[in-house]
Fold:
Amino acid sequence: MKSNLKTLVLLSLFLAFSAIGGMVKIPAIIGTIALDSMPALLIASLYNGRKGALVAGGGHLLSSLYAGFPLGPLHVFIAVEMALFVWLFGYVFSKGKHVLAAILFLIGNGIMAAVPFIFILSSSFYIAIVPSLLIGSFINLTIAHFLYPAFDSRFPKGELS
Structure:
């Protein structure tokens, strides 16, 4: 029970960090690209991809809420995509392939996540949004990369697996 409470508190804390990161917007044609995935990447690298996926999905929905849900219910789909790419990042990262994990996240979240919008909206939307997605993904990865050593030495591994 104690471990479940610690896990809940940790995930709530990182979801709050994600909400704060969601307020830091990166200029784009749609105002929902933000620093909301950095805490999810950090928790995925510290513990596992499942915990990171929960923070990523929830963090995206909170970030979209701040922007007024410009894409409407499609944000649920985007949250699922983000959760999937953060889970993949955490899985590959846990295998010791840190650079590959970062590259897969950058390609997934920066390029692949927008592909369905070619069919839903238009190819013009895709072309316009990808540069901002790549920059946002890169910034989120970079911040998580530099914070990881400080958090890794302070967070116990075995207790919250």
Summary: The chain has a mean pLDDT of 90. The longest helix spans residues 123-152.
